Structures are given as structure tokens and as C-alpha cells.
Amino acid sequence: MKKLHLLLLILAMTACLPHRQEKGIDFRIKNKLITTITDVRLSTSERLEVAEFDSIRAGEQLSGFLSMKANAGDGQYVLEFTRADGKMERLGAGYYTNGGPLDRLVTFKIKPDTTLVSFRTFFILK
Asked: Bridge-partner residues for 97, per DSSP?
């Protein structure tokens, strides 16, 4: 009986979460540098849809939604940007399958010597 109550509680909680009808993934790109990055592009390895930004200033965060409605295969997410010194960075991370995401949110934190990537299956609304 306790297991049934727990199952019902979990189902009720997940039913209240926001769900997008379109296939894709929400993203956040956080610039943790003291300089601006430019030519920012986020796509899948299939490159059918691209989220593009001219720049992200130091300490700024951008959020959006990367549509994957045209994707059909398996692949990874690709983040590209140019640092203030002109060095272009290209990072492949994560995994999607059958053209769809396994997660709901991907976060990129750009730091001086690395870019950290994290994934979430569920949102915590702020």
C-alpha cells in the first residue's frame, strides 16, 4: 500500500512539471570569464538547427531552447564560441538518440581554462 501511495505521489508531481510539446532541449550558457565571448553557436552534431548569439558579456548568462524537430539520428551537442584573444573553441558534449534529447536542460559554464557541462532531467523552477 505504501508503494502505491509513493507511486501516485511521483506521478502527480511529474504531471505538474512544465512540458514542451516541441522536441528539443532547454539550455543555459554562462560566461564566467572577465571578458566577452563572441560568435556563440549551440547546435547538435547534425547541425539542422542552431541557436546563435553575437556575444555574451563577462558574467552574463543566456538561456534558450534548441529545437531538434528535424533531427533523426544520434549525436551530441556542440558549443562553439570565440574567446577575447581570438581563439575559437569547439566543444562536443552529451548525447541524444533517435533525434531527441535524453535530458531537459543542458548548462555550459565557460571558465578561463575549461568549459563545464551539466545536464538535468527535471527542472527546479526559480
From this structure: 100
Per-residue pLDDT of the chain (126 residues; tens, 9 = 90+): 666 666 666 666 655 555 556 899 999 999 999 999 999 999 999 888 999 999 999 999 999 999 999 988 899 999 999 999 999 999 999 999 998 899 999 999 999 999 999 999 865 555
Domain of residue 51: give its range: 23-120
What CATH number should be reported for the domain holding residue 48?
Answer: 2.60.40.2890
pTM of the predicted structure, to 2 decimals: 0.79
Rounded CA gap, 121 and 105, in Å?
7
Q: List beta partners, residue 56.
A: 37
Residue 84 lies in a domain: yes
